[in-house]
Amino acid sequence: MSTLLDILEEWDGGCFYSTELLAEAYSVALLALFEATPEKRADPRVIPFLEAGYAADCIEQDGLDTQAELCLKHYPPPMNGTENRLERTKRITALLRADGYTVIEKWECEFQSDLVNNPEVKAYFERHPTTRSTPLRLRDALSGGRTSALRWYHKADLDKGEKIKLYDVSSEYPNANLRSIYCLGHPTIYLEGDPNVPPLDQWNEVAKITILPPRDLYLPVLGYKAKGRLMFPLCRSCVEEDSQELCRHEEPDDRKLTGTWCSPEIKMAVQKGYKIISLHELYNYSETMQYDPATGKDGLLSAYVRCFMGLKIQASGWPPHCDSEEKKKQYIEDVRNHDGISVDASKVEKNPALRTLSKLILNSFWGKFGEKTLRTKTVLIYNYEELMGLVSDPTKTVQSLIPLSEDCLQVAWKPVEDGEESLPTSCLLHAAYTTCHGRLQLYQYLDIVQERALYFDTDSICFISRENEPEPPLGNHLGDLTDQIEEEYGKGSFITEFVAGGPKNYSYKVAVGGDTKNIKSDRILTYPFQDRLPDFPLEVVTRPARKLWQAKNVKRRRVDVARTVPHGFNAYGDEDEEDQDLLEALDLLME
């Protein structure tokens, strides 16, 4: 029978974290992981495992997936390869406990989950001096659009001339592809501590940094991914704890954000009061391309956009104001001068199908650059060797095996994250820059209205309009804002009352044509469509169903019945909480 020391002597290593790190992070009182006598601790066969942190100075973090029983990166196979690794681990643990030792195990899958979902564990390892920043991942720089409800409710004060308006950016992402700057070639990579790092104004593309947000910025610039959502906080601890209290974190380590962002957003953030604490890694490109409307020089993606945007314009038909040949010529010339798009007057005719197709091509083009490859794939296996090759491949995780016949298995597998393959059409840099430029364009409009903003969603903004206060300009060209309410309900229409239950969860009332007593209701079925309905008998089955709806606005901190502020927002400095509550209430009364 093998003794404990015999097994330890055979042990080939694994993936461990020191007791000081894990015990403090999890607040675990490890009185004695190795409650052995001095004589046993001094045994030469035990000392290597004590130094490695296997027993006395560590918590074991087995790199073994408890379901798939595969994680070769963190749990290398034994040298002899004859014993199942899971069974071997259980045998070692049982012998340790049988000898009277206290054994605390932490499986890698649990630990990795805690690093993402447990704010205390995540914060501890980010702050610890022995923790090295992980390498820059380009996919971390790719984020979606800004979406948030800034106010829960607002009713326009018509007596004071207030209106609520909803503006929409015309073709936001195609406009970014047309006009934005894109990088080319191979980057120069700068690591933390490199004395040759260029100044911020010379950064091109992406950087992984630690940055400290200001306390009083109502509209934060940098997005931060927390709990599966893209948030825009001013304090990391507050957003990860989903705190609805006033931020009391004074230490920069509690508030700082660590992430990967594109350089245009970093530059904008610094302009708004963010302070870069440390640079972990920078991808810097010396070669760039950008469309120049003055000379007609194309950018990286501008020729593609101009081609299909021309098809979309032609398939949209003539605008209502083009009621003469002279106005039509002026419209075509205006589009050419402003956007560089050529329109064939003989092909301008309403064609909904072609318009939809060209719009789809324009909006989905950039997404191909950021296509994910970590997706489940299904293969049919007909022989044993092929099956064993797939199951034992360390770069793949088998999801399911379904026997289809005596000679065929359907196997679903997914590549591990480190084994992600690259597609010929992939370019995460260009995808990240496209969404970055889209967010910055929306931010420029939000920056004009500031606290009058009620809601925004990727390419739209809802705000309070007041006399003698600035508003984002409207236009008819690519990337310009258009009044969504006037387009849908007629000239002069505006919103009188707005309510939001969270992102993509809102409703409003419209004064059609500016008349607050006129309520317009669109017909669901038009007369021509009713004529085409089938006239044969149909059986309609109606079943009762329940759906739970709730207002859930978790992206900001609620300060009163209607208003919100970013997590970590503290505009009143060192005033005590009661005084700050009073000041916030006075701000509301002053509106």
TrEMBL record:
Keyword hit for DNA-binding: yes
Domain annotation DNA-directed DNA polymerase family B mitochondria/virus: ranges: 138-288
Biological processes annotated in GO = DNA replication
Q: List, alphabetically, the InterPro entries matched.
A: DNA-dir_DNA_pol_B_mt/vir, DNA/RNA_pol_sf, DNA_pol_palm_dom_sf
Q: What is its EC number?
A: 2.7.7.7
Q: Record keywords: Oxidoreductase included?
A: no
What catalytic activity is recorded? Answer: DNA(n) + a 2'-deoxyribonucleoside 5'-triphosphate = DNA(n+1) + diphosphate
Keyword terms, alphabetized: DNA replication, DNA-binding, DNA-directed DNA polymerase, Nucleotidyltransferase, Transferase
Q: Could you state a single Gene Ontology molecular function term?
A: nucleotide binding
- According to its UniProt record, what is one Pfam family this protein matches? DNA_pol_B_2
The record's similarity note reads: Belongs to the DNA polymerase type-B family.
Q: What is this protein called?
A: DNA-directed DNA polymerase
Gene symbol of the encoding locus: LOC117650752
